[in-house]
Amino acid sequence: MSLTLHFHPLSSFCHKVLIALYENGTPFTPKLVNLQDEGERAAFHALWPVGKFPVLQDSARDCVVPESSIIIEYLDRHYPGATKFIPDDPEQARAVRSADRFYDLHIHLHMQKIVGDRLRPANAKDRHGVEDARTRMAAALGIVEKEMASRTWAAGESFTLADCAAAPSLFYADKVTPLAGKYPNLVAYLDRLKRRPSHARTLQEAEPYFKFFPKEAAA
Ligand SMILES: N[C@@H](CCC(=O)N[C@@H](CS)C(=O)NCC(=O)O)C(=O)O
User: Fold this and answer.
1) Per-residue pLDDT tens for 29-65?
2) Ligand 1, atom 9: closest residue by C-alpha
3) Rounded Cα–Cα distance for residues 102 and 143 (Å)
4) Which of 77, 97, 103, 110 could be a cystine partner for 165, CB 3.0 to 4.6 Å?
5) pTM above the 0.85 mark?
6) Using the 8-state DSSP alphabet, how is residue 104 labeled?
């Protein structure tokens, strides 16, 4: 088995890649990185100085691959399976990459900003940044709410890279801005995602860690 995934089970961007790995039953060694542990942190930073996971290491190709979307493209190319994450057709591929970017940049990162602020000390909160993230995330959710009225999956009728991106984005966005009542198509889509065995397994494995997910401080 040549693949090692450096990850944490609570990390949303790691969920994105775990979904892709489980989707095709791709064998890999999971390496849980505890960033609170100085030794593990130093070892991880030696591998990828940016210090963000997921990072995929492939001993067969002597390769270190950071960035969730690029990892999934790498898996699609070098370890293909029944689920094809990027379609062969260039226009369809563009639509998939575009949806992947949309979920990461306009939903996932805003959700991360809101959650990240909960971890900041009381005297270092960024109220303006969080409000801005909430406003922009709401605009983005409104866009995909409309799109999902006529789609089964994020970029059409096949499960792709875009759904790997959408699953953790919407799962955690729902924790900071409940989707119910406002976004019926996204609620239904998130339900489909949660029932997808690859995502269900990812969430089941994360379950023991959800107690560490930071709650909003009482006002
Ligand atoms: N663009 C990166 C984002 C990765 C990212 O933000 N990872 C977070 C966890 S979800 C992380 O490593 N946080 C730890 C830190 O910033 O120290 C990707 O798509 O992989």
Assistant:
1) 999 999 999 999 999 999 999 999 999 999 999 999 9
2) 11
3) 10
4) 103
5) yes
6) I
